[in-house]
Amino acid sequence: MSHGAFAGSRAAGWAACLTAADEAVRDGVWQTLAALMPDVRPGERRESVRFNFPYLVRLTMVSDEDGSPRGSPVVVVGRQISEGGLGFYHPKPLPARRVIVTFDADGESVSLMIELLWCRSTQQGWYESGGRFLARVPNPESSPFQPPA
Question: Are 111 and 137 in contact (CB under 8 A)?
């Protein structure tokens, strides 16, 4: 689903500044939202529009050296999602600043590279982290994986 059909006049000017990578990320987010939350429809585009996102997603740590996946994916619990990023809960500290998040929806997967920007502990002993989407990438669980340029 392309989100371009939803662009209003105000958003159309902003959308003209997006790169192809930004468009791919936005399409991936809206594809996931449309599959998991069919009642959600894009409205006026504001940078900080967030949606509650109580779904399990997989995180794959990424090497700082070459951007390649490392280790097995871990399952985390989504908190909120926007076109710009994702917030989520996890039981242990994460050993990487960049991760690939993979959403499964309607039999398809969407994988996005995230730069983690913050982390805090919760009263229940878990952690809450968040970051911004950098690029849409191939599913790191498929072989062979090519990191984004």
Answer: yes
